[in-house]
Write a structure and sequence with these properties.
The protein has one helix and eleven strands, in the order ββββββαβββββ. The protein has one helix spanning about 65-75; strands at about 5-10, 25-30, 35-40, 45-50, 50-55, 60-65, 75, 80-85, 95-100, 105, 110-120.
Length: about 150
């Protein structure tokens, strides 16, 4: 698998994001806080990670939820996938939300999301008078039915 270099700065105590298995697409990233943060039911919090990155031009890093937190605790991320642009140099923060009916305590050092590196293509528009028709055409939002 091809590896792309991404420069990273981290606070002294922060564990570097890492792939948890050989075939993993995302690197787990951890919460960087002095004390636990309580996520109330339907509450959301911006959780710091203590890292900054220099992402190569032409790439983005997507922030995605962890499936274990979602199924076991109803914890996911808002603005998913979150996009970290190649020209951003600030601290990476994760918008966590509690979709369960119980409080959830985010612990310092807890794995809270995944970082996935993606190639980016920018669009350029070509204005036209019409678009090519397809069988689907303008159908959307459930137009194919439930089953």
């Amino acid at each position: 698998m091809e590896k792309i270099e991404v420069k990273i700065l981290r606070e002294e105590e922060v564990t570097l994001p890492k792939y948890m298995t050989e075939g993993a697409s995302g690197m787990d990233v951890c919460a960087y806080m002095d004390q636990p943060v309580i996520l109330k039911p339907l509450g959301r919090e911006l959780i710091p990670t203590g890292i900054k990155m220099e992402i190569p031009y032409g790439y983005e890093v997507q922030v995605r939820p962890r499936s274990g937190l979602a199924i076991k605790h109803g914890i996911t991320l808002l603005n998913t996938p979150g996009t970290i642009d190649s020209d951003y140099r600030g601290e990476i923060k994760v918008i966590m939300v509690n979709l369960s009916s119980e409080d959830y305590e985010v612990q310092p050092g807890e794995r809270i999301g995944q970082l996935v590196l993606q190639k980016v293509y920018q669009m350029k528009f070509s204005e036209v008078d019409s678009l090519e028709d397809t069988a689907r055409s303008g159908g959307g939002f459930g137009h194919t039915g439930k089953k």
